Amino acid sequence: MDTAERIADILLDGSEYEIIYHINPDGDAVGSAYALALALRLAGKKAQPVCSSAIPAQYRYLTDEVEKQNLTDPEYICVDTSTKARLGEYSGKRILCCIDHHADNTTGAKHIFCDKDASACVQLIYEVIQCLGVPVSRLMADLLMTGLVTDTSCFRSSSTDRDTMRYAYIFASCGADIKAITRRHYLVKSPKRMAIEQRLRSSIALSDDSRIAAFMLRHSDYGELDITDDDTEGINDIAEEAGAVIGIVVREKREGICRISVRASGRYDAHELCSRIGGGGHSNAAGATMEGSAEEVRTAMMKLAQDYLAGKDTL
Ligand SMILES: [Mn+2]
Prior knowledge:
inorganic pyrophosphatase (n-terminal core), Diaminopimelate Epimerase, Chain A, domain 1, 12 helices, 11 strands
């Protein structure tokens, strides 16, 4: 494992970087990639964030201000990403440095700076920026704060700790507008977003002992509610609303293929559960993909979670 100092030294040696962030990007992916790109530019490098997916609408007010740079022979950095699959069209690239906070990094990056205890990747990005020796602009501070706020579900996830708040203090001190960012992502909702949340909440299924709660969006819901990816950003927080130890959200965006999001609390581990079906993530929040209708996948996930809890409880 490399340190922030080592990563910064390596980056200061090169001249052109494309910074890959993961497909279906969230605020931490976008914030990490763009804040690092701006820092590298301040250090005299060319740097351009790249991704196989479009930037979700709610983050574009930050990224629209960033001028696009065309690079001729870039080296590759990836952020907030632990697997090649999440690199999309860039999965075949040789990665020089990976900066990440997920368990089990399999990107094959030459240098990896990873801390799975960090509540957001932007915390590690900030440490690298410090080692690059460049200042944090107001825009960079807003990007970093956005990663912190969205990856902790507005400072409410179980990964939120005193370090999270320490970085929030630092980013706010650099000019981040904490009020505007938390309001934008966790208070204001469009009518469509409210309708989607209502549909999800009314779908709740509980295990007999109420320790597992599972929600779903059917493929037909996507058509009826005219849902785009922008509308569902962060929607998986609903998994935690029932107070179950395992919360599951199943979304059948493409017919017969479901994206699964799992939240776990206490001594239960969402990453461990999801890795049983080829997924992964963090101990408190993880994901996987499974074939089948939303109903079928939800039933399978309930069974998987029940078996998982039974196994844990007999240890
Ligand atoms: Mn993240």
